[in-house]
Structures are given as structure tokens and as C-alpha cells.
Design a protein that fits this description.
This protein has 16 helices and no strands. It is mainly alpha-helical. The longest helix has 36 residues.
């Protein structure tokens, strides 16, 4: 097991390097340092001298990958790529274009994001699995057909409708919770109930429908028919046979959601005024602060690769047939 984990970590290094190079290249193909200077300075203050001063101040006055005018190691280290991207591997995110410490901002904003994402993630998976199992229990009945119809309807509704509708009904009309905001020093749960509720309800349609498909596929297997023929109750068949054997695709789907636990949700955090990483990245995109965007993309890559490794490891627990060599 230890050798497998080490090997997977070694595989992740070139993947992370490739993502870093690709991200850096895309950023500077779309926006050159001159374009970045123009967007930060504003049209009124754009002069060649102002652009050069901004580039020198923010470290964009160097060559991108290779500094032909330098000697020795400085040929590669005295470049924009080394100073802006290589340091990311040491989790040194530097400063934003506005001069803020990105590492400090991330360490502060990650907690509101986790406060919303963790309960939404855990509650959403639990609700979706329970609803899907209930539907499978009544498969091929009128309840099953109507439930699938409701799932498709829920999937067809815009995420914004759930947010605005939840704010109007629960917060404005019933006045049960605040419409938006986040008070880290007071009763945080009051500000989290509505975002979590909206996130869970908005995900029931797609999530429960997908789990239903997985469970129905397992329900048609020979071992399930054998269990029923031996007199096992329907509850025993569902929870002792179907659910454990459907864990592999469930774990595979869950890994996609892992980065959102840390990165936050753009819409949820923006509409509910939560100062998390989702709103942080959205603000950076609006202000064209590419230092923040690059850092967040890099963090997302690390989280996704970590999730893949954890998923591979968890396969051995979910399915004894999986063996790590």
C-alpha cells in the first residue's frame, strides 16, 4: 500500500507540472503583460512609461521562459515563469496585482467556503442516496415513474431559481434566516442554513437520478436475485448487497466534488454574501487579477489529483476484488 501511494504521488508530479505550464501559457497567450498593465492601469493612465513602470513593479518586465541576456541558472530563474509559477509548488502564491498577500487571503477565506461546502456535500450525498434507494425499492411502479419525472424537472430548473426562490420564500417572506451575509463571530449557523438547503435541493434532481441508475444496474445482477430467492428482505437486499456493490461508481463521482469543498461555489457565495474562495476567485476574474486566478487554478489541480489518489486507495475498501500491486 505504501509503495502504491508513493508511486501515485510520483505520477502526480509531472501531471501537476504539465497543468502549471499549460495554465501559464494560456494566461499569457490570452493576455500579455502589456495587456495586463492596460487593464490594471485603466484607459486614462495608459502610457508607454506607465506600462513599463507597472510591469517592473509587478515583476512582468522579464522574459517569459528563457532569459537570453542572463548567465548560468539565471537564464531560467530570472523569468516570469519561474518567479510566478514555480513558486506555486512551494505554496508560495505571492501577491495579487493589487498588492494583497494571496496566501493570507486563502487561509482566511477557506473557512467560510468549507463551512458551506462540507454540510452541503455530506447532506447532499446522504439525501440523494436515500431518495434513490427509496425509488429503487418501488421500481416499475407509479411512484417510480412520477419520481423520475420530478427528477428531470428539478434538473431543468436553473440554479439561480433555487437561490432567488429560497431567499424570497425562506428569508424575505417567512423571515426564518438572514437573506445574505456571514458573521464569523456570532451565530454562523443562521447564515449557513439557507445556502446549504439551496445547495442540497438544487442537487437532488441530478444526484438522485444518477444514484438510481447505479442502484438499478446492480439490482438486475444475479447475486441480487439469489439473495431475494433465499428470502432476504428488501431492506437487506438494498443496504447489504446493492449499496456496497455500487460504492465504486459512487466514489468515482464524489471525487469530482472534492475541489469544490475547498474552492467554494461561485454562485452560492456571491448571492449569499459569503466571503469564501468562490467569491474571491469571482472578484479576481472581474478585476482581471490573474495572479489570484492562477493560484486558484493551481490549488484546484492539487485538490483534484489528491482526490483521484484517495479514490484509488478507497477502491480497495469498497471492492475486495481490487488489488494494489
Amino acid at each position: 500500500m505504501f509503495a502504491y501511494i508513493v508511486r501515485r504521488l510520483l505520477y502526480a508530479i509531472p501531471i501537476l507540472i504539465g497543468v502549471n505550464i499549460l495554465t501559464f501559457t494560456l494566461f499569457f497567450v490570452v493576455n500579455s503583460p502589456d495587456d495586463m498593465a492596460v487593464s490594471q492601469l485603466g484607459a486614462k493612465y495608459v502610457t508607454p512609461e506607465a506600462i513599463n513602470n507597472w510591469k517592473e513593479k509587478n515583476g512582468y518586465d522579464k522574459p517569459l521562459f528563457i532569459n537570453a541576456g542572463a548567465k548560468g541558472a539565471a537564464t531560467f530563474t530570472d523569468t516570469i515563469f519561474f518567479t510566478k509559477s514555480i513558486k506555486l509548488f512551494a505554496l508560495d502564491f505571492g501577491r495579487s496585482e493589487s498588492g494583497r498577500d494571496i496566501t493570507s487571503d486563502i487561509s482566511i477565506r477557506m473557512w467560510p467556503s468549507l463551512a458551506v461546502a462540507l454540510p452541503t456535500f455530506a447532506t447532499g450525498i446522504w439525501v440523494n442516496i436515500c431518495v434513490a434507494l427509496m425509488v429503487v425499492m418501488f421500481h416499475a411502479t407509479r411512484l417510480d415513474r412520477w419520481t423520475v419525472f420530478v427528477f428531470v424537472g428539478l434538473m431543468s430548473i436553473s440554479y439561480l431559481f433555487y437561490i432567488i426562490g429560497g431567499q424570497y420564500m425562506v428569508a424575505k417572506t417567512w423571515r426564518l434566516v438572514p437573506i445574505s451575509g456571514f458573521d464569523a463571530q456570532g451565530q454562523v449557523w443562521k447564515f449557513l442554513i439557507l445556502p446549504v438547503l439551496v445547495g442540497v435541493i438544487a442537487g437532488i434532481g441530478a444526484g438522485a437520478r444518477w444514484y438510481r441508475t447505479l442502484f438499478l444496474e446492480e439490482a438486475n445482477q444475479d447475486y441480487v436475485r439469489t439473495a431475494r430467492a433465499k428470502g432476504c428482505s428488501e431492506m437487506s437486499v438494498l443496504f447489504k448487497h446493492i449499496l456496497p456493490n455500487a460504492l465504486i461508481p459512487i466514489l468515482t463521482g464524489v471525487v469530482v466534488l472534492i475541489p469544490t469543498l475547498f474552492m467554494g461555489s461561485l454562485l452560492i457565495e456571491s448571492f449569499f454574501g459569503i466571503p469564501g474562495l468562490g467569491s474571491y476567485m469571482l472578484d479576481a476574474i472581474r478585476s482581471q487579477d490573474f495572479a489570484i486566478v492562477r493560484s486558484m487554478v493551481f490549488i484546484g489541480s492539487i485538490l483534484y489529483i489528491t482526490g483521484l489518489i484517495l479514490t484509488d486507495i478507497s477502491y480497495t475498501w469498497a471492492d475486495p476484488r481490487v488489488r494494489l500491486s
